[in-house]
Q: What sequence folds into this?
């Protein structure tokens, strides 16, 4: 356990909170039995941590290693993965976070400020297709955490069981493919795209990749195995894709790393 992680764990234990190291993500801590408000946890106001499932943390690691170039978070949302990428960048890299929705934009900006990352993460208040029209720049790597059915997070959002229908999967698939196509226009030659959903449905995962690769022969799937710590190797299949399921206490995620042949 590194010093910063260990120091936070000591502060939490000092407040009477049961803490142990995460099982898979290297800088994660698990809090057992805590029922209070997140903002009341020691270290929150100082920006010492962000609350995020371990599977989501592993997805961010698939973007690495992050050099001194410019990177893009194409669907930033509230900024869970955005802030993790900002931390992984160090001071030499730069990240652009795309988010069009005003309420999420405000929360994204607040999270970046609290975690002292505003200087290395630029927010683009618009949609991905607008970014490609307005700015003539290419990114070394793009994280595309695509809108999806959310079937992998039903344990935390049980309403999804009743708010999704089978026809929704193909609707999401069309949006996911459109976003992947938009991302390719922003990628530098030889760069990579990490495609992510919190869905366990093949229509939104393997089928999306199959259709994308058929239409873009200049891209190839990279094995995710060498991007993750050894404890997480079990989540990489023979096809090189990353998959987690809730039966191990994680959110259900799918991810693939796509490399432009340049």
A:
């Amino acid at each position: 356990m590194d010093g910063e992680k260990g120091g936070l764990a000591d502060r939490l234990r000092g407040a009477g909170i049961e803490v142990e190291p995460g099982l898979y993500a290297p800088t994660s801590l698990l809090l057992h039995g805590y029922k209070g408000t997140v903002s009341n946890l020691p270290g929150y106001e100082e920006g010492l941590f962000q609350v995020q499932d371990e599977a989501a943390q592993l997805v961010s690691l698939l973007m690495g290693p992050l050099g001194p170039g410019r990177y893009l978070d194409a669907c930033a949302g509230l900024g869970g993965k955005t802030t993790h990428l900002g931390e992984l960048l160090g001071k030499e890299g730069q990240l652009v976070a795309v988010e069009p929705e005003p309420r999420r934009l405000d929360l994204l900006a607040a999270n970046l400020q609290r975690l002292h990352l505003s200087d290395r993460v630029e927010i683009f208040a618009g949609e991905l297709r607008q970014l490609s029209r307005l700015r003539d720049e290419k990114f070394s790597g793009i994280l595309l955490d695509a809108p999806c059915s959310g079937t992998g997070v039903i344990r935390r959002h049980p309403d999804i069981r009743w708010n999704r229908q089978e026809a929704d999967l193909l609707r999401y698939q069309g949006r996911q493919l459109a976003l992947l196509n938009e991302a390719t226009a922003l990628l530098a030659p030889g760069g990579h795209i990490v495609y992510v959903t919190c869905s366990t449905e093949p229509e939104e995962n393997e089928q999306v990749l199959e259709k994308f690769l058929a239409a873009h022969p200049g891209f190839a799937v990279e094995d995710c195995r060498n991007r993750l710590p050894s404890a997480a190797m079990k989540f990489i299949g023979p096809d090189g894709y990353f998959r987690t399921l809730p039966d191990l206490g994680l959110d259900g995620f799918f991810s693939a790393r796509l490399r432009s042949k340049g």
